[in-house]
Amino acid sequence: MDFYGSDSQQLRLWATKRGLPAFRGEQIFTMLQHHVPQCFGDISPLPKELRASLDQAHRLCPAEVVTNQESSDGTVKTLFSLADGKRVESVSIPTRTRHTICVSSQVGCAVGCTFCASGLTGVERDLQVGEIVYQVLYHHQRRPVTHVVFMGSGEPLFNYSNVLAAIRLLGHPQGLGLSRRRITVSTSGVAEKIRQLADDEPQVTLALSLHAPDDESRSRLVPLNRRWNIAALLQALDAYSQRVGRRMTFEYVLLADANMRDHHAHDLGRLARRYGAHINLIPYNPVLQTPHQRPSWDQVERFTALVREAGGHATVRGQRGADIDAACGQLVLRKKAETAV
Questions:
Q1: pLDDT tens digit string along 224-242?
Q2: Mind listing the pLDDT tens digit for each residue in 149-193?
Q3: 101: helix, coil or strand?
Q4: In the chain, domain spans
Q5: Would you give the DSSP letter of residue 261?
Q6: Predicted confidence (pLDDT) per residue in 108-156, tens digit
């Protein structure tokens, strides 16, 4: 039973099937969402005998914290160990007015972007709903969460049903009650699921991990482009834009050696202008096992200016967690290396 991945109605049904009053399921849901217990023994509204019997029969918590890395800027990277021993990461990104959690949706990643640590070991499995939601609830205890971004390890649209259920659970009015507009799903370009997301959750913000505006460059950096090329993506984005009518975001990691020529800037600006999309330019956070180079600030400023000249609305994301393993997959990769030694 995925307790942290169940809503109040599902837990009420579970309780009645066990011969318990339905309100016991409601009590469990409330405690999970607002107190984040590690075991049934921590759910004080339940009778002591029931807590003991449930702990004997079930594992409640889907993950345990292995380590927290805290940056001087307040960013916190958390490494979780799941019930089967697999490990995933999440990142807490606080600002004066926001607390954003970057969550993982898979163990590893199948996309294999050449600049990202998450895909270096491939994908091992999808995360369950509760394993996704728990990443948010854990950090919510430290400070109320205002925004969630599916930009951690994994391709969210390859784990579509569980990501969709997690979005709905995070928005549950008896739980965190997050507005859909405060949830962002980032995809490397799973065209068919982009269309489906527009129908299922039109208020969620879509972010496309573009990283190159032409097929030749993008296929080198994002192998998924060989399956859904730029033309296929544009068809999906056209349908999404017509259905949703909301601004989307293009994510673009700046790699000094691969995607920062003048023609890249011009094409990127034109693509973004087509949808009124916001372009999030992200200076590369170096990963030792990848071949790419971080651009200088002068290079970043010049590229940004060229994108804007072409009509793109672009901003440069400020680097967070530079003094810790804050980029996707870095902490998992380092811990694996330490274990191997």
A1: 999 999 999 999 999 999 9
A2: 999 999 999 999 999 999 999 999 999 999 999 999 999 999 999
A3: strand
A4: 3-57, 63-340
A5: S
A6: 999 999 999 888 889 999 999 999 999 999 999 999 999 999 999 999 9
- Measured CA to CA, the distance from residue 304 to residue 262 in angstroms comes to 10
Contact predicate 153/107, CB 8 Å:
yes
Q: What is the CA radius of gyration of the chain?
A: 21
Q: What is the Cα–Cα distance from 87 to 23, expressed in whole angstroms?
A: 34
Closest CA to 134 of 240, 243, 38, 272: 38
Burial class of residue 4 in the structure, from the number of CB atoms within 10 Å of its CB (0-12 exposed, 13-18 middle, 19+ buried): buried
CATH entry 3.40.109.10 includes domain 63-340: no
Is 63-340 the same fold as 3-57?
no
Cβ neighbour number for residue 117 with a 10 Å cutoff: 24
Residue type, 1: M
Instruction: Output the 3-class SS for 164-184.
Output: HHHHHHHCCCCCCCCCHHHEE
**SS3 state of residue 328:** coil
Q: What CATH number should be reported for the domain whose range is 3-57?
A: 1.10.150.530
Tell me which residue of 290, 280, 10, 333 sits closest to 151, measured CA to CA.
280
Closest CA to 89 of 70, 109, 104, 105: 104
Tokens 């600006």 locate to 269
Catalytic residues: 89, 328
Query: Would you state the structure tokens that stand for residue 340, as one six-digit string?
Result: 């191997």
Q: Is the separation of the CB atoms in 22 and 16 below 8 Å?
A: yes
Burial of residue 262, with CB atoms counted within 10 A of its CB: 0-12 exposed, 13-18 middle, 19 or more buried? exposed
Q: What distance in Å separates the CA atoms of residue 47 and residue 166, rounded to the nearest whole number?
A: 29
Q: What letter represents residue 276's amino acid? A: G
Nearest Cα to Cα of residue 207 among 280, 310, 259: 280
| Structural tokens at position 83 | 């019930």
Encoded tokens for 318: 């400020």
Phi, psi of 218 (to 5 degrees): -70, -35
CA angle 193, 311, 230 (to 5 degrees): 30
* Non-local CB neighbours of 320 within 8 Å, separated by 6+ positions: 71, 73, 75, 93, 326
